[in-house]
Each structure stands twice: as C-alpha cells, then as structure tokens.
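SEQUENCE WITH STRUCTURE:
===
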Amino acid sequence: MPTKNPAQPRSYIRRARQGTICIAACASALLMACALPACGHDASSSSGTATTSNVTTSQVPGQRADSTPASAAPTAETSMASGTSDGGKIIKTEDQWRKELTPEQYHVLREKGTERPFTGQYWNTKTQGTYRCAGCGEVLFSSTDKYDSGCGWPSFSEKTGAITETNDTSFGMVRTEVTCTKCGGHLGHVFEDGPGPKGLRYCINSASINLEAAGDQSKATPATTPVPAPAPEKAPDKK
C-alpha cells in the first residue's frame, strides 16, 4: 500500500489559490481597459502612450488640434509687433508702450491712472493750439473748447477727434470713461455738467495729451536780418 504524503493536498490547494488570483487579476485588468475610454480618462498617464481624443475637428467648428499649424490670418502677436492693426488702430505690446511713454504717461494711458488735481501741465494753460493724444498723436481737442471748470484738470466742452466712451463703475461710482479710439489710451471722463449747448465737460489728464501750440515759433522759418547798405565813399579833400 502506498504511503500518503500529507503535503500533497496542501500543494493542490496552493496552486488552486494562485490560479484563482491570476484569473481575478486578468479580469480586473480587462474591466479597467474597457472602462477607461468610456469615462474619458487619458490612458497615457498609466501606459505612457498618448491617446486620440474622441472629439474630432468637425465636431468643434473653428477649433484646431495642437499639431495643426495656425492659419495664415494675421494674429495679435504679429499685429502688436508691427504696431498697427486692421482699421488703423494702434496695437503695441506693454513693453513697447513703456519704452515710448514716460512713467506718468504710461500710468495714465495704459493703466487708467489719474494725476492729482492742479498738478498737470495743462490744467490752467491758456495757450492756443491743438491737443493731441500723447500715445499716438491723434488730434483730440482744441484750445477753443477749453475752459476753466475749477476741477483742477484740463476741461473741454467739445471733442475734436475720435474718442470712445465706455461705462465705468470703478471705485463705487458710475462714470463715463473716455479713451483715444486710435490707440485705446485712457484720457479721463466726461460729465454732463459743462457749458455750451451740449452741457458736456471732458475732464482730461494732462499726461494723456500733448499741446501743439498754434504758430509755434520753433517751427517757423527764422526771419532774416536786413543787411545795411554800404555807406557812400567820401570824396577826397582838395588841397
């Protein structure tokens, strides 16, 4: 009669357990492989290979894939590099504005700052001429429409150039901001408490404008000094 090996049943049990564990692991991996695409997760995070998105370009009009080059239409970057854009408007980078403007001009024009009253260059000037945008040189106001409003900033009852008006609710107030249409520079605000038939008061920062004085002598041709005629020769005395 053969002798029984007490360790033999244990080895059968151990192998059966190992087989069960292997089958369970394969089933779990299969379920995960089926579930990942269904819930939209990216399998590349676990396998290291990239997957293709389920959304095609035809499903999202105007959207391009990362590998698709940009269209040939001019972009904002190319427009800013050239300093101009469609419609004649000026578009520049902030670095370009900083190089071209003084710190005070940049703060007012590009950061919508406000200079202190009674401190600006033009708040009380009576010089005749044309006021241009300090950012792009566009004509904005005329000295004929400038008046003393007592507010401490240059005030005009009428605009001369293209100015854009925008609703401004900053600092808990409701105001109308005015900006240069050509370059978008902040100029100040317009109020309905001015003189004239329109009753408007354009309250403008001096740092946002430059005065081109009428009849500027620096641009005039210097007058020539008349040359005196030579004195007639004196006849010699007769002896």
Q: What stands out?
A: The chain has a mean pLDDT of 72. The radius of gyration is 40 Å. The domain at 103-213 is CATH 2.170.150.20 (Metal Binding Protein, Guanine Nucleotide Exchange Factor; Chain A). Residues 130 and 142 are 5 Å apart (CA to CA).
